[in-house]
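Late entry, evening session. Most of the bench is empty. Finally got around to the prediction I had been postponing all week. Sequence below, unchanged from the version circulated by S.P.
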Amino acid sequence: MIFNLFHSCLHYLMKPLVDVGINGTAMADGMGVVHHVHPLLAAYAGDYPEQVLVTCIKSGECPKCHALRNKLDDSESFKEPRDIQAVDDALAKVSGDYQIFKRACKQARIKPIAQPFWDQLPFLNIFQAITPDILHQLHQGVFKHIISWLVKAFGRAEIDMRCQRLIPNHHVRIFSGGISGLSRVTGKEHAMIGRVILGIIADIGLPGGFDASRLLRAVRVLLDFMYLAQLPVISMQHLSLLNEALSVFHQNKNIFVDLGIRDSFNIPKLHACIRKRCSSFCVLLRHGFFCIIPHFSAFISFYCFFCP
């Protein structure tokens, strides 16, 4: 019911875009010059629960590809992009028998939503419009998992004690109460923790005689990925470094399984970084599609195509 209510409301709001997206409308630019433009929905950035809501998929699945929810942890888990034509064909059966419609949606791997807000918008593939973002995917996603794993690996007392004993320095925040008990942590606070976390854990031994070097490598390369992805200009060399960072993480991630912290890595936000998708990830970041405003859960971007 929530899915249908959400899509019905957005369908009402987006309805004017159907006609102007195709036929265009007059719009003035910043200099006051009037152009004939075609506003099209180009990007939808939000956290993972909202991506699930927007794309009508089931929770735990990838909103962009056909990877199975129990196969997200494979470094080669990226599958073919979701087929928007198959989804449109399934949604076209909504006016017929409900059971047939339900089976068609199940086969297309979406929920049986009567009228998604995007089904009539011109030139839109909603699965490709879902964009990655620094805040929800990295700071509040991947890095949040890293912190919880480290607390379980080394213990709350050890992590908090080392945080409290950090030497004050410029651009370094001292968490006087430690980090294990923090709640409702913002993306900025996660970024502050990311500046010091590697130094905090660098010489802590793991219980059970496990080699801590694998854990340190896994954490370091994920931090590398986070910082490289935030560069204002990303070259092919940076893309190669991003792919290399993910490859090293997958070579060392099983240390968390050996420690009993994780059974698998079927995490949608981690899967979103996998593969050569980091190239498209960075292309979108460079064009400013990602959301860095912590008070808004979604960000919708429109392209306006100008006609001469």
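Two things to note before I forget:
The first strand starts at residue 25 and ends at 28.
The chain has two domains: 2-131+298-307, 134-286.
Will write this up properly tomorrow.
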